[in-house]
Design a protein that fits this description.
By secondary structure, the chain is mostly beta strands. 6% of the residues lie in helices and 41% in strands. The protein has two helices and 18 strands. The strands form three sheets. It has an eleven-stranded antiparallel sheet. Strand 9 and strand 10 form a beta hairpin. The protein is globular.
Length: 296
């Protein structure tokens, strides 16, 4: 009975999983399929963390030693099992597909004529007071990064919602079902810092010796800001790599940050909120009024 209670406790917490070496298993299943996963051959105290709960439904079975997984929606979900006996972890990644869906075959984009690049590229990413949301147009999920002084936050759009302070080490995760912002282990976070994908992708991935080889003109990207949406006329670069991959980049001339990135003809990742003057914090554990205050 003890094993069941601990398993359910971990299902509810949904906190950030620490990066460790783990046994990893992949399942590729169709909508409506049911599978059972047993992460450990022998474990007395077992817990689970679920990422992407909208893709699958799940329940512990056989006193929590196994977990039954039902494919509910096309997409990707991950389950991290932790054996509390020795701290070991096992990870199951579940890819849910629709067997009736006809695959879309897209052709690789044709490179347009390049132009002489007369600008000066310099990567000067924001270092503070930013709120940036990136939409993955393929999955539909949004990633959000926030920095306001020593406070940082991250949300992956799939159930991970974190807030921490890089000076004090205080760390929280968000529980909308019970206690809202909830204390986590001090210092158990990875600071965002000043550079993260996709903002740093052109800076990190492309040789800058002759950008005229890749420059194909300008294109406007509309983003959300602190007051209202606004347009940014971006430099557009079309880069064909030696391995045959084509990547297009839409770059903010003001700071060299990539606002949109598309590989081949795949759905792009694009910045939708680009607030670089985020000087007033309006969410987080500092706004919590009591133990069961679940407001975001």
């Amino acid at each position: 009975m003890k094993k069941i209670l601990i398993a359910f406790m971990f299902l509810c917490l949904g906190g950030l999983v620490m990066a460790q070496e783990a046994n990893e298993t992949e399942f590729k299943i169709s909508l409506g399929d049911t599978i059972t996963w047993q992460p450990f051959a022998d474990c007395n105290i077992l817990g689970y963390n679920i990422h992407g709960p909208k893709v699958i439904s799940y329940k512990p079975v056989h006193f929590g030693e196994k977990i039954e997984i039902v494919a509910k929606k096309v997409g990707k979900s991950s389950i991290v099992a932790t054996c509390q006996d020795n701290g070991t972890e096992a990870v199951a990644t579940i890819f849910v597909t629709d067997p009736n869906e006809v695959p879309v075959i897209t052709e690789k984009p044709v490179k347009p004529a390049t132009m002489t690049f007369s600008g000066t590229y310099k990567f000067v990413p924001p270092t503070d007071n930013y709120f940036v949301t990136i939409n993955d147009m393929g999955s539909g999920f949004n990633e959000t990064y926030m920095k306001h002084g020593d406070d940082e936050a991250y949300n992956d759009g799939q159930g991970i919602d974190r807030f921490w302070n890089v000076k004090t080490g205080k760390n929280w995760y968000y529980r909308p079902d019970a206690q809202g912002w909830t204390d986590d282990v001090d210092w158990e976070f990875e600071p965002i810092g000043t550079s993260f994908p996709i903002l740093n992708s052109f800076a990190n991935e492309v040789n800058k010796d002759n950008l005229s080889n890749y420059y194909v003109g300008t294109e406007t990207i509309m983003v959300g800001g602190s007051d209202k949406p606004f347009d940014i006329e971006c430099w557009k670069f079309f880069v064909d790599f030696e391995d045959g991959t084509v990547i297009q980049y839409w770059v903010d001339p003001a700071n060299g940050c990539t606002l949109k990135r598309q590989i081949n003809a795949d759905p792009a990742k694009v910045v939708t909120v680009y607030d670089l003057k985020y000087t007033r914090l309006y969410f987080g554990p500092g706004f919590k009024k009591g133990l069961h205050d679940t407001r975001r």
